[in-house]
## 1
Amino acid sequence: MPFEPQCFIHAANIRLEVPVSVHFSEQLTDELRHDLEDATLTSFDSVVMNCIERKVDFLLLSGNVFLEADRSLRARLALLKGFRKLEAKQIPVFVLPGDADPAEAWRSIPELPDNVTVCYSSSAEPEILARNNRVITTVSVSMWYGDTDAFGIRVIGRAEDGQEPFRIGIVSKAKYDESRRMAALSSSTDDDLLNVAINQSEEKLPASNNADDPERQTSVEKSSAAAETTADYEAGFRDHINQLMNEGHLNYVAFMGELDRLTLTLESGRVHCPGTTQPRSQWEANSGQCSLVQVDAAGKTTIEEINTSAVDWKNIDLNVDTDATLKSSLQHMKSLLLQQPRSKSDRIWAVRWTVRGPLPVLHDFIEEDLELTVAVELDRLDVDGRKIRLVHHVRTLPDPWEVPEKESLGQQYADLMTEDAIVSRRRLMKLVRSDTSLSDGWRQRFVALVAGVDRERILSRMRIDGADWFVSDLQDLLPDFDDFDEDILQDEAVEEHRLTGDDTETTGSSAVAILTDAAVETFESDEDDELSDDEEDAENEEDEIE
């Protein structure tokens, strides 16, 4: 079917004026503090400028543009300022309210420019975008299916000349789970009413049969969750998305309620979440993005990533040799920084260095005040005619060491530093999840602690302390071997309950995968690129976690 070619920018989770947290070694200056405070505002400005520079047809904002709970006047003023810039360039804005910025919050914003359209779920009819008196795009948050609803209101917009508009809708796990709960309650209540009608036609329903009874809702949800497998949930959500897109004739669906960037390619169209324009910390992402979406006349959709974050995180390894000096290492650091990917929106890089090498060399670096030297000598990066402010967090990881006396207590200690001696994030998470004595509150606290476990820091402390205890002269630890297995440092990633996307053009059911632990939120550090256990053990552990 023919479409009108168009392009738009899709952004989500802007979270205006939410603080950004970075770990750095140097003193916080006023300039740096202001830049961090303004990071989310700067990222929104980047979204607006990209819309103007690329001359898009419209801007789509899908949820959590601001946090209504914060009641930030500055956030609202920045929002209106950006909208007015787009209005001056005649660029429309479509807003899909989210959990943090609900429809009531958008209704309370005075004097929204005429180019801004907020899509409310109470409105069955979709919002439209017209070009040359022809409807080219429709945007709707309504969950109605079919051409018209029960009252005869047209839900799916159509152009009068027969050319199909590009239709945009929404989907979220929260809405899907809510619809399943309501369906389960409704089905259970209908069964109860039928049984009562047959067996107790003249008696009143007991209170426990009421669908509004909290105890009944809890029991229904627990029994449903207990009977459901991962495959069941995955298949159900896949069917839900397909039904939404097919019956709603949707070509593009904004996946809401998630911070991770995600793209699913289905037979009927694309499901996409652009992530966040500015991560609050490295736990969320190393950088923030929005998406440039282009639609051709055949309806083919391409999605391009655009970096919008003012603060990016960089994780860089520096390997030093026995003859390395602090001066030569600083030059190497600068060359590594110049090799890092960068974008126009970058203002600050929070760089975490992991310096690896012989313990005597790293000890000398620390004695020469490595962190302070890096902070002073590498405070800015001059590139492409502009300056990027650098903040650093430096950690050292000594290489494995041996002592000349192979039967000594020190060598026995060194031999104990094996994979079994290093804590595993996966095993810790498994222990927390399986402990039935923990309350929900304590379980969440332990989950947060497990997420922050740094295996390399633990191993570094073990090696340094061992050398202090058993070695009188650090020069004796200069390496003459390379047979230590550093793979033990690759911690296992702990799976989240979230929709996983496709990096390639995948269609159908293979594009959707759902994992089942919705209550547990875990994070992966950037060095965790591969599992430390072999594949069979890792798969067994995953099965046990699920």
## 2
Amino acid sequence: MSSAIAALFRDAESLEKTEGAASAAALYKRWIALNPDDPQLAAAHFNMAVVAQRSGDAFAAINALRDALRIDPEFHPSYINLGRALEDLGQTGAAVSQWLALVNRLPALNGPALRHKVMALHQLGRVLEFNHADAPAEDALRQAIDLSPGQSQAIQHWIALRQRQCKWPVVQGWDGVEARQLLAHVSPLSAAVMFDDPVFQLARNASYARQLIARPAHVRDHAARRVERPKRLRIGYVSSDLREHAVGFGLCEVMELHDRGRFDIHAYYCGIPRDDGTRERIRSAVDHWTDITGLSDDAAAARIAADGIDILVDVNGYTRDARTAVFARRPAPIAANWFGFPGTMGTPYHHYVIADPHVVPEGHERLFTERVLRLPCYQPNDRKRVIAPEPPQRNAEGLPEKGFVFCCLNGAQKLTPQLFGAWMKILATTEGSVLWLLDAGPETNQRLRLLAAAAGVAPERICFAPKRPNPQHLARYALADLFLDTFPYGAHTTASDAMSMGTPVLTLEGQGFAARVCAGLVKNAGLPDLVCTNLDDYVARAIAIAAVPSAAAELRRRLRAGRDHCVLFDVPLLVKSLEGLYDRMWDEFRTGDLPVPDLTNLPVYEEVGLGLVEGREGESIAADLYAAALESWAAHEPLPEDGRLRPVAPSHRDGRAAA
């Protein structure tokens, strides 16, 4: 780099700090005009684009990047930034063209070229995935993983894309990339879909938090706030889903029913910038609404701390647009995990998880780093949901006029080969029946129909429900006779939606949180006889219900009869119980009994778990397998006791029990 361009970069950086990005951009503009023959001219244009973007002048940035590429087509970072700038303006097609141009231009495998190619492929995959071009996105991410196998984000999105397309087995290695390498980076949500294994999920979630969230430089000390309960506890809900989303639908009435004499309710929104009726209803219901989407983690945490929040509730967990790093900064003395994510967070800064006796029964507390507190039913619902007045006709939804309709309107990512095979057995035995699934796109729909044909079921018996506005979507549940739940990640809001409309849900109860939610909902709706304990029982029960014309009608009658007084839809009971838990949290904080999350041995649990889950997608992994594996581990490397799984140490080591 020439001394002249180096001096320009230093001067521009200093000017931006003192006078702002616009002044730095003006400096670059003058220098470029006076130095048209400088060999580093492309770099000057590139840096001018960077500061122009920071000053808010996206069009100047785009022009500068195009100038950089005209001057030097081999200046690879310009393709990356130009594509991103175009994407930010909604020009996704033009953005993809830029990244493809770079991918095709980079045959060399030197370090910088490799890094830039991987970055371009990752950007391609991300945007294609967002725009539902799943197969090309999967291909782009696989190429990125091939070049750099340790990319957590690329692997997580690649796995999620394969789940969404029902490409089974989801995780399989290829030359140079082993399946275990891929599983070591699986996201918590994908892991919950693939395995009913709460031990692995506990360990993996903790590992994910360590990988994802950098340790903040400073955290707040709230010891001085250990005082008597204030007249109004300040409760802060943090979520990207306080909008037209399953979480938003569920929380509306909760926000409206909070006791404003005892609680001051704050909502911190971190989702997409889109107004809708649900978002407006929540915004109107809470005492304070703050959009933290554009704030840095430090700034968002500072805002929450300035608001004096007593209890901060994470209603995202490990889902899209979550702000877990804000919780890491401990902006409130108490942090709770509720409703947005079905499992433990595995962090040192989430103190409580709010569950119920079904999703976390007695004895399962050891599978959570948080202290488990329980509501009668952990899932909130909204009794004021808008429903289309007239249900659609079967032919309008692509269903046959006659015959038993099994449905599962969960997302396709929750399907597994074992479950789909069970569904095919049900269809093969129930003459004239159809299976009604949520539309997953032409390629995935065709894949599922081909799998049905391979199982001896006519492919036209797999019907697909197109996307509908929520009022119409709810109304069409009346067309289904029986909802067949997925496993191991069962229905959550889809189950309560179905039952609120009178459609019974048949479910399979597993070990982990995500595999137990639906069973709890079904029991709380008054249909415990629809909870199965194994796949054979599930198949037999579905066939038996379809075989007797009055069976489904009787289940529907029971649902409707209990609709107004069952625990599942008793929102006032939930809110009163939730507020009681908030009081308990404050009392425990005040008396010095705030829980300290237990992260003991979790890296070892993850290492052992990777060996147990590989090649076992869709299965339940028994805890005694961990006990045996840890006993073998402890024979070579002593482990601290942690109260979870306790293999006995070999007798030659003083007889002490090891975790």
